[in-house]
Design brief:
This protein is α+β, with helices and mostly antiparallel strands and about 280 residues long. The protein has one domain: (Glycosyl)asparaginase (Glutamine Phosphoribosylpyrophosphate, subunit 1, domain 1). The strands form two sheets. It has an eight-stranded mixed β-sheet. It has a four-stranded antiparallel β-sheet with strand order 7-8-9-10. Strand 7 and strand 8 form a beta hairpin. Helix 1 packs antiparallel against helix 2 and helix 7 runs antiparallel to helix 8. The longest helix has 19 residues. It is globular and about 45 Å long. The two termini are about 20 Å apart. About 60% of the residues are buried. Bound molecules: aspartic acid. Aspartic acid binds next to strand 8.
């Protein structure tokens, strides 16, 4: 399994607290997988913890849009069944990733947005933020330069369980200074998130460029065409760069390969498997 906490890390800054969080979370997830947990549950668990932590630009740590409020995007995909769920531009739910899973499991749809998504979350009893002014960590009008994340603080998780089932999940507050209603790659199945029988992928970076470069599914298709996971990710990141953006990708394959790559300054990330000792790092 692998986690990312966004590809917006800035060289020279101290990410000790975040790396410790990623390390502990990865260790917990690994214990769960060792005890037979299902990959879908593990990626949801990891993303929920990152959303609640306030350490990333997702959930509690999200940056308000230019209208002065937080809009959240999240998506989750079960590779074994190809079921997927997403929410976009939803306000004030504590765990957007769980609402995305709710869309997958409780509706015939893949994505709900805005007021409809919030109405669904409320009806289903998902936790909502009662006092946004005190809940969110970043103040209205905050600029990326004033934070540790420099644009990309999205969170993501990919995992394969003991039965070989793959799953991926991604959650974000989006980019700093985004317009009201703006949606990036993170909640789009195939762009920010993808899982099938062979690979599970979560992206971070400038969402507009990731979408235009073909996104997560382009990695899956390259793998299916015979590329290694690492080479497939390099091709997507090169295309993102060619279009003027930057970012990072984490992925796991059915063969147990883990890939974590980025062409931004850094990407907070962690990984572990039955073959590979736990690593948690940023640069
Ligand atoms: N990809 C996200 C978005 O465009 C941003 C990020 O990765 O932090 O919304």
């Amino acid at each position: 399994m692998a986690l990312h906490g966004g590809a917006g890390a800035v060289a020279g800054r101290d990410y000790t607290v975040t790396e410790r969080h990623l390390r502990e979370l990865t260790s917990q997830c690994q214990d769960q997988l060792r005890s037979g947990a299902v990959a879908l549950d593990v990626v949801e668990y990891a993303v929920r913890a990152m959303e609640a932590s306030g350490l990333y630009v997702a959930g509690r740590g999200s940056a308000p849009n230019t209208a002065g409020y937080v809009e959240l995007d999240a998506s989750i995909m079960n590779g074994a069944t190809r079921e997927a769920g997403a929410v976009a531009a939803i306000r004030d739910v504590v765990n957007p990733i769980s609402v995305a899973r709710g869309v997958m499991e409780r509706t015939p749809h893949v994505m709900l947005t805005g007021v409809g998504a919030l109405a669904f979350a409320t009806e289903c009893g998902y936790s909502v933020v009662t006092d946004p002014a005190t809940y969110y960590v970043l103040p209205v009008g905050v600029r990326a330069e004033e934070t540790a994340d420099q644009q990309h603080g999205t969170v993501g998780a990919v995992a394969m369980d003991e039965a070989g089932r793959l799953a991926a999940a991604t959650s974000t507050g989006g980019t700093f200074g985004k317009l009201e209603g703006r949606v990036g790659d993170s909640p789009l199945i195939g762009a920010g998130t993808w899982a099938d029988e062979d690979v599970a992928i979560s992206c971070t970076g400038t969402g507009e460029h990731i979408i235009r470069a073909g996104g997560a599914i382009s990695v899956a298709l390259r793998v299916r065409a015979g590329l290694t996971l690492a080479a497939a990710i390099e091709e997507l990141l090169a295309e993102v760069k060619r279009l003027g953006g930057d970012g990072g990708v984490i992925a796991v394959s059915r063969g147990g390969e883990i890939a974590m790559a980025y062409n931004s300054e850094g990407m907070k990330r962690a990984a572990a498997s039955s073959k590979q000792a736990l690593v948690a790092t940023t640069f």
